[in-house]
Amino acid sequence: MAEGKKRTLLDWWCGKPWLYATYALGVAMLVALVLNWESWSVPQRLMGILCVLLPLHVFEELEWPDGFQFMMNKVIQKSDNPLAYPENRLTDMITNFGAEILFIAMLVFTPIAGNMFVVFMAFFGIGETIAHTVFTAASLRCYRAAGMRAPYTPGLATAWCTLLPVGIASLHWLITSGTFAVGDLWGILFVMFLIGFMIRLPFIISYKIKSTRFAYDSMGYFAKFEK
């Protein structure tokens, strides 16, 4: 194990278990979505769909083909140890498992929050797709000399094919339902919370500590360009 420390429950959880728990939550939400489709409002349906799709997105990024974290560390954040920080197993657990829990909680409160959460879904789905497209363009520039030609990085497919449609559907609902109010823009605060406290803050702390304790052991999709 990295840094020769004794394995703890946190080390175990930050391996594969949190991923399996995230997938299990995705399956549970799929069942809930199917069973409640007729009774749920459109905003609830959209939020339920997002709860199902996030685990798929995580699977593409971190399991198959894997390598999103290596790309983020090396290409985007210029880390001197891209397998270890700032993105690592701990920060990914906080960000992704935390996001799944957050989305499920938001689904529960969607009948109260209404279009606030629809605004969140519109920004999240479209913003995530734009971000992955930018990451892919940066990766192509970085690895062009190593033979990278396909405009693809882990997470791009599920962003474009699943998260973007949810974002567009959410935006369409806001425009056509006739229920949008200026107060619904408070949903942007949830986007800022997700970015600031569940993504950026763990990265900032991880980069300051520069620990290899939760390092990944594979470059995934990018291993072929690092030879």
Automatic annotation (TrEMBL):
Keyword annotations from UniProtKB, A to Z? Membrane, Transmembrane, Transmembrane helix
Annotated transmembrane regions = 20-37, 93-112, 118-140, 152-173, 185-205
List the InterPro entries: HXXEE (IPR025671)
Q: What is this protein called?
A: HXXEE domain-containing protein
